[in-house]
Amino acid sequence: MIEVVRGTRLPADALWPVLSDVRAWGSWLPTVRSVTPVEPGRPEEVGASYVVLQPGLPRATWTVTEWVPGRTFTWESRSPGVRSTGTHELLPGPDGTGIRLGIAWAGPFAGAVRLLLGRRTRQYVTREAEALEATATGRLTR
Question: Are the CB atoms for 114 and 105 separated by under 8 Å?
Answer without folding.
Answer: yes
